[in-house]
Prior knowledge:
single chain; 10 helices; 8-stranded mixed sheet; TIM Barrel; 22 strands; 8-stranded parallel β-barrel; Lyase, Ornithine Decarboxylase, Chain A, domain 1; alpha/beta; elongated; 24% strand
Amino acid sequence: MKPHGPIPPGFCADSDGMLLIGGDRAEALADMAGDTPLFVYDSAMLTARVAEWRAAMPAGVQLHYAMKANPYAPLLAFMAGLVDGFDVASGGELKAALASGMAAGDISFAGPGKRDRELEAAIAAGATLNLESAGEATRALSIAGHLGLTPSLAVRVNPDFDLKGSGMKMGGGAKPFGVDAAEVPALVRRLLDAGADWQGFHIFAGSQALDSAAIADTQAQTVALAARLANEIGVTPPLVNLGGGMGVPYFPGDKPVDAAAVGVALGETLEARDPVLAKSHFAMELGRWLVAEAGVYLTRIVDRKTSHGETFLVTDGGLHHQLAASGNFGTVIRRNYPIAVASAFGAEPAETVSVVGCLCTPLDRLGDQVTLPHAGVGDLIAIFQAGAYGASASPATFLGQGPAREMLV
Ligand SMILES: *Cc1c(COP(=O)(O)O)cnc(C)c1O
């Protein structure tokens, strides 16, 4: 038997033992959707999450949603009413962000390899480009010149440090992201000389960290770096985007980030900041932390079989919707995501089984030798922490399966 990750707090069952999501029975949601597999996102949990962040963080710090975590259109439209901005990372995401109702001026566009037509779309819309290189800056200025528009430009800085304990390091050393800190002052001066509307710095050091002290330490280093650069340039950055990094507990032993501790430390960091940043605004951009917990992936058992004494629950879902839960999205050692039998939620574990998907590959495992209540054909399996990097970060067309249904409740 192998343990599975912690089920997020706040989920419970009705008197029949059926998992409730946003107050609805999992089985009723599957009926409503018309079929399984199905992602359900609970809007009340999204609202609560944003409120938790705002209560924890110093007043005035802005919250941006990094939409690559979950670009489902109804969820985006819902988030547009909750957060202060969207961070996008492609022309496709820019289009979706604009369609969600988020004001163009509150959208920023990061990401290496932006093509000319993507730069043009952002400049024409009035979104801010987080420039990833001097070459990209040259192209953006030239496109803005052709359009006769003043571009809104920030510089993404590749910091000289990374976020300790983060699952994905996005700063420190040689990276495809951002402009090396040493080259930033000259680039910003060039933008100012060209008459661009310089928006400030974007500094993103890493992702999926659970240690509040490490996050706080990175934020302090980020603010110090922004101050050092601003002093060198001699101009106050209107906005310092501090990145994010707050992760969620997926695996056994993982503990949630202490958001209150991050907020207290950020308050102290901002209180003590260099005078050059006195008038700057600050933002954090979060994807996973905002949306992961609100999502549940429901998949139905289509077969129950034994092989050499091991029991397999074969479902209609799999890695084509839940690549990360199968252990194939940035993890070195496969461990079990939080998983439950939705139709016997909270019942005593009764047997050790492996929950697999319907794809003809041994990689397609959603729960490896997990101990669950008894479940059979027709029962629903729930995978938690499914609201981020699920549907859009998995190879839906693999083996001709197609996408899962999605629903915001
Ligand atoms: C991926 C990404 C994010 C979101 O990271 P999460 O771990 O989902 O919070 C934020 N900003 C940038 C620049 C990113 O690339």
